[in-house]
Amino acid sequence: MNMKTHTPGLTLPRFDKQPLRLVWRAAFSFGSSTRVRRASASGFTLTETVVAILIVGIMLSALFTGLGSACSTVQATRENLRATQILVQRMESLRLAPYKTLQDPAAYPTNSTEYYSPSGKASGKGGAAYTITYNWAPGPASLPPSYRTNVMLVTVNAAWKSGNVQCTRSMQSYVARYGIQRYVSAN
Question: Rounded to an integer, what distance in angstroms lies between the CA atom of residue 151 and that of residue 156?
């Protein structure tokens, strides 16, 4: 027995070849005509290519210039940080030293040289050379004479060359024979 079932309202799709050809032709035709364009006609013109290469060249040169500038800025910042570290080390050693040794050139030479990387100094790869100068002077004239002889102003300077630029940093501190606390609080 051969039975056909049919659901009312449901129609089966028809596959005609003619409408499918029209869909393909509409999807892959460029312009108002129904002709299919040749593959060689879909590329860029010489002018468009030259302009694109010129724009890419300008962008790449700007990118490399920016990267070079960023690297030199990072190097200068590192050298500046190392100079500050050297100065802080010197000032901390002054804070811990006895008052009489601060004026002794054997303990604190007036000129010395430090390097960016002390471990690379022997191989010649120490980086920037920092010239460290140490100076001391009697206390300021605004202090009474009895205090002025027991206080001195210590200055430590660092000078180095970063690329073609000469850089300097400096730190100052007062040092008292019996500690600064007595002079500040007047006790």
Answer: 16
In a domain, 138, yes or no: yes
How much is the pTM?
0.63
Residue showing tokens 């102003």: 153
CA distance 78 to 34: 67
Whether 19 maps to a domain, the answer reads no
Whether the CB-CB separation of 154 and 94 falls below 8 Å is answered with yes
Whether the Cβ atoms of residue 108 and residue 134 lie closer than 8 Å to each other: yes
Amino acid identity at 136: W
Sign (positive or negative) of CA dihedral 128, 129, 131, 132: positive
In terms of residue numbers, what domain contains 129?
46-185
| 93/56: higher pLDDT | 56
d(CA 124, CA 119): 10
Q: What is the residue-averaged pLDDT of the chain? A: 80
Tell me how far apart the terminal alpha carbons of the chain are, to the nearest angstrom. 124
Q: Is residue 6 part of a domain?
A: no
Domain count along the chain = 1
Assigned domain for 72 exists: yes
In which band, very low, low, confident or very high, does the pLDDT at 64 lie, cut at 50, 70 and 90?
very high
Name the one residue in this structure whose structure tokens are 């309202």: 9
Cα 136 from Cα 153, distance rounded (Å): 6
Question: Residues 150, 139: contact at Cβ < 8 Å?
Answer: yes
